[in-house]
Structures are given as structure tokens and as C-alpha cells.
Amino acid sequence: MPRQEHRVIFLVGFMGAGKTSVGRMLAEQLQWRFVDLDDLVVAREGRSVAQIFEEAGESGFRSRESAALQQLLTELRSSGNAVVALGGGALSQPENQAAVERSGFLRIFLDAPVEELFRRCASQDLARPLRKDLSSFRELYLSRLPGYSSGAMHADTTGRSVAQVCDEVRSLLERGKLGVKETD
């Protein structure tokens, strides 16, 4: 992995894994910038993820997501430290996965059992265009699992609070000798 002047942590995982919640808290604890890829797409498009899916379909959303990711990767090479939450399907696109791997930035896979992820999504008041029934949810999760786990450190979020997951992620970072410590 190439040595990076700026430190970046990509949080990857399926919908409901806690990428945004953990990312926000972790960035605050580290005093780093937080970026959510879905928020970048929404800002660029001026409409919600659900609206983009409805009007342009999944392929239309994925092309917009890829463009936002490419722009973000360019910016991250010259900006300060950041924690980035990637959308649940961002790494399902081979060009996105290759670009993230080439970046050399650290990836942490946030995971939990499919049933727990499904329950979390059901309890959140968010439009999730790809959350249908449990069977199709599981099938989609399994199809994306290789992209999440490839080259990533793993953090189990099962039954844990956001703060507990942040503690585990910081522990992974410290064990990895990445020099990431909570700041005063």
C-alpha cells in the first residue's frame, strides 16, 4: 500500500451497518473531516437518493455515485484527514472498487448479521430504495460481501452502540500502527 501524506479511512458495508453514524462520531473523536458519499451525490444532484432511484433507476444513481467518488478521491489526495462513509452499493461497481483500492486509503468493513441490518433499516425513517423483503435483502448483501471484505479490516457492529463501534475501530487503527489517536 502506498504511503499517504493525508490519512483517510473509508467505512464500507451494507445498508444499516452504521457507516454514517459511526463515521460522524469517529471523525469528531479524531477531529477529522467527515464525508458521506451519498450526501455528495444528493448535493450534486439537488434531489434525494430515493428521487434519483425513482427518476433515473439504480444504474442512473450508480453512475452519479461513481462520478462523485472519482471527484472525492481526487480531493482526498490533497486535503486533510477524513473519515468517509461509502454508500452500501458503491463498491459493487468494479471501477469504484478498483479506484478505492488504488487510492491506498484504509478500508474498514462494518458488518452485522443480515437480520439485524434488515431490522435497523426498518426502524430508521429513511427511504431505502433497495430494501424490500428479507430474502432479497439477504441476496443483495451476499452479492456485495466480497467487495466489502476485500482488503478491509473488519469491525462487527452486532448489538453495539455507535460509541462501542468507534472504540473498536480506533482499536483496529492503533493495532494497525497507523498513528491514528484521539486528539485532545
Q: What is the radius of gyration?
A: 16 Å
Q: Sketch the major β-sheet.
A: 5 strands, parallel
| CATH topology description | Rossmann fold
Counting helices, strands and paired strands, the structural category is: alpha/beta
Shape: globular
Average pLDDT taken over every residue: 86
Description of the molecule:
With 184 residues, this protein is α/β, with parallel strands linked by helices. It has a single domain, classed as P-loop containing nucleotide triphosphate hydrolases (Rossmann fold), CATH 3.40.50.300. The protein is built from seven helices and five strands, in the order βαβααβαβααβα. A five-stranded parallel beta sheet has the order 2-3-1-4-5. Helix 2 crosses helix 3. The longest helix has 28 residues. It is globular. The C terminus is likely disordered.
Short structural description:
The chain has helices at residues 19-30, 37-45, 49-76, 94-103, 114-123, 134-149, 162-175; strands at residues 8-12, 33-36, 82-85, 106-111, 153-156. The chain is globular and about 40 Å long. The protein contains 7 helices and 5 strands, in the order βαβααβαβααβα.
What's the layout of helices and strands?
Blueprint: E1 8-12, H1 19-30, E2 33-36, H2 37-45, H3 49-76, E3 82-85, H4 94-103, E4 106-111, H5 114-123, H6 134-149, E5 153-156, H7 162-175
Parallel strand pairs: 1-3, 1-4, 2-3, 4-5
Helix pairs in contact: 1-7, 2-3, 3-4
